[in-house]
Structures
1.
Amino acid sequence: MKTSDAATEITRASKSNLAFAFIAMSGARRRDITTFYAFCRVIDDIADDDGRDQETKRRELAIWRQSLRGEFTNEPALAKPVRQLLSTYPITPEMLEEIITGVEMDVDIRRYAAWDELRVYCHRVASAVGLVSIEIFGYKNPQCRDYAIALGLALQMTNIIRDVAADLKADRIYLPQEDLARFNYREDDLRNGVTDSRFIQLMNLEAARAESLFAEATNLLPPEDRRSMLPAEMMRSIYQALLRRMKLDNFRIFEKDYRLSKIEKAGRAAAQLFKFF
């Protein structure tokens, strides 16, 4: 299988909202964003794989760091096309290493004391992805970088809210400890699936944080770059709808796996696309 085919298959198999947004792209840019997404998926899967011990995870992520700097024997299959991105776009090895650093945080860190700490994590695993993505999308106004940062934070906070139950099974609690304490909601309550008023208040706080970041991203998007940022705007629309659904449903995350159907995603993608006709 060619590496381009492998990247496409990794992206398709992920069933990600990000992969869905690629329908707005074509040609070389679509191929290249698919390669980049496959890179993100592969390194994230290393950190999330229960079959690998911590040392193995660190070693494999270190190999990826090395591969960004130059070719070597037995490097990952996707390494060469990922390096080609660096020569095609204004993307540096450091930009991709920032994402690897974020993934490494999942290997070693299970709790976050405060939003300031969690924000660093969210920046590395989401905003850094956005900053690379917009280079592939293409843009005119440098303010797009601020847009990408805010949107990445909003998307990751939405993921965190949605995945509280799933992350807990892996002994990961991304909700800041100071937020739990604010509502006198304990880890034991979370483990027991307690969804009383304290829990609803806690989740509404996290949702408000995400909503504020979505609003910030919307305000930062330069008018002249709205067309090139169409894939990102599709993501924004899909994730905001997901966040709204969870909020209206009082965050029944221990009972439901919140997703938008393909039809709902297609409708939101089409709505963004039709803005340009």
2.
Amino acid sequence: MRKVILYAVTAVILCLFGGVAYMMLYGNTEQSTAAMRQVTDSTGTAMEIPVHPKRVVFLNVSNMDMYVAAGGADTVVGKPTSQSMSPELAQYVSNAQEIGIIHSPNIEKILSLHPDLVIGVNVPFHNQIRDTLQQNHIPLYINTLDSYEDTLKTMKFYGALTGQPDIADKKIAEIKSQCDAALALTQGKQSLKTLILFSNPSSNSMASSSTFSGDLLKRLGGINIADLDTSMTGQFIPLSMEYVIKQDPQVVFIISMGNTPENLARFKEQMEQSDAWNQTAAVKNGRVYDLPMDLFTVNPGSRIGEAMVYMAHSLYPQEDK
């Protein structure tokens, strides 16, 4: 009898150990056998990512906004710490964990969320975490958003990832309709020399047409003074008052980066009182406009049509009804 009991106990123990071993080897089967797709990101890096990711971490707001607009809100587990998030987007991702500001993502926090995909933009702070993520079998997809085409292409791609292509296509149609309305305002209008001024507490820069806001200006028929000297290259060019006076912009757009409303108001007051700025047609004629932070500080994602309409009405206010 004792032998029978001993055999029975041994059998139970072996079954338990076998079950544990099975779970250790195959417990992650859902992730390891998930359908994958081959993609190439904006840096030219080829990788495999899930066909339909289940746990996505975003390192910047613009990509997250479009992913949510494409029907992916329920799969967002990590979000950047940001003040440029619209109230609607903040509500959609209220359950996601913050993983740090865009320039300093917290890799430990990201890993703790066990994502199957991380999406960011082509900046050093995001590219630098690629190796660590790769060591943990987590793909990092870098997605650049510098133009209107980038936005539409991204929306289409995210619709495929979320499995909601109809929602993405509907949003694309809405964006195109808004942009067509903005372009209609330019018909028969004179192209205006324009300065896009990126202002922060420590420096001021001119945005070229290779930036998101510069791309919109170009589409609306504006002449970006940052593009007129071919010796100046890059997305952002240090502000030179000598150059600004020489080019004499008819319109100035100010995009505030980190300035408080009080600081921005003080900066505009200084412009109005400055002998140098008063040599420009824009300041003399009161054609200096603030561009909303939530639409222009970075690519606004699914709200790009709204941004284009806003800029068009500022460039051509005589069209306002």
3.
Amino acid sequence: MKVWIDGAIVDAADARIPVLDHGLLYGDGVFEGIRAYGRAVFRLDDHLTRLATSARAIGLVLPKPLAEIREIVLGTLRALGRDDAYVRLVATRGVGALGVDPTTCPQAGLFCLAAEAVIYPPEKLADGLDLVTVSVRRPALDAVDPQVKSLNYLNNALAKQEAKARGADEALLLNAAGTVAEASVANVFAVSGRALATPPPTDGALAGITRRSVLEVARQQGFAPLERSLSRVDLLGADEVFLTGTGAGVVPVRSLDGQPIGAGEPGPAFARLRAAFLALTKTLGVPF
């Protein structure tokens, strides 16, 4: 792993952040997860635009222009030296006084991590994930808007912890109304015939960049993509279910709460859409 911090690229063991950084103390900051495929960064400018939007939403002034941050991402990847990689770009509120007051932080912090891209074991990509519906609920939009990619990921972490404790690979989070929001760190899709459905952001789903990419290629592949509310029963009755996320890409689901989804193995719709997505990564990448 390589880390850009304080103007230098160092090994992860040598990277340091101050203990009074409000990003560490209070989760006050924003981030982007970014993927590189074949020495090109997928939809980098879309990620940077979303980072800037998240920062504006919490009143955080980024410490560098986006053009400079773009070069930081590319430079960190060059230092890592891998064709395929995962990048975590983080902007914190910065160092301030003890207490949650952001106005005590005169300068935002910034660092960028680049590492090997391994989210799920290869056998899970081949066989499919096992999901469980967890007791943790997605907060209401008027409490914590999921469109802001903040450092407050306790909701996601607790959902993942519960899923792992119950022997599953991934968590399915519902919102307060009982409809599907997303997985702990991924969007959810359900396939029924030609219909391809995914929950809308108003149900608590992040409008993910991989999610958007799959919706774009789906119509070209003969599917009818749409955003609509989904229940747990909708997923159990679907022909196929899969997840999308920057880190994971497109990943099949084989079961929910111990019940098989469809045939209980990755299906043809998943295979077609994953192939179409991977083809898209070859055309929308910024070389490094």
4.
Amino acid sequence: MAVYSIRDLEELSGVKAHTIRIWEKRYGIIQPQRTETNIRFYQDDDLKTLLNIALLNKNGIKISKIAKMSDEDISEQVAQITDIELPGEDQVDALSLSLIQLDEFKFHSILNSNIRQIGFEQTMLTVIYPFLEKLSLLWLSGAINQVHERFLILLLKQKIFGATDQLHTSMSGRSFLIFLPEQNVQELSFLFLHYMLKKRNFKVVNLGIECPIEDVISAFQNVPVDFVMTLNTDDQHDTFEESMNLLLRHINKPLIISGSAQSIVSLESNENVTILSDIVTTLKYLDKIY
């Protein structure tokens, strides 16, 4: 069971610490525990309660009214709100709550509502990616652990696979050979890359994750493609740069690298290499060559 300070609750819920204290004293919505030295602390149930209350309050329900609701009433109101269109920040809060509670139904409901309204690609860009950025706070505070991570990755992989399978494209455009090198953990971004390429009618040869460079070279020699593409992270710079230089000695087509350029400075001067710093830049590039 995780233990939180009031500053942890402020960062995770978006509710200012002084507001939380007012809500405690005036309405008794959560009751902190205290250490032997009289320092207040909170537990998982307090965080879940505050996230629910914050979501209702942000959507126009007065705290005085919320304080009179039972736990069941609060849960029912939250369920109703998450079924309708919410501002981006509230979407992230609702997804965070569903993850902490391991609530698969609520998680799917929020994403499906967004997909119906703005499509899968915009849902990834405006809801899922901001949500993934918030996960570091949840990890640091102890609100989530490896169980939550496995739960989340499985659900998101299901969504990306499903969206990719539903695409009905001719794939008559130019072709991409894509792979994720060894020691790279960006599987979700890699799966989304496949979706983005296929949506734009590019033919995709996907070699998958943890792919040795020797296998990429072999595939390139056997399958005619127009581009070779992969992803980069700062924490793999030594092996990544070495692998890319090896690959470049065996291919005569453009190599596109999506991700940070800080750790691969030597590759920037290679005229056969295009480095795209982030997901937005990558999308613009793909739309340009489409």
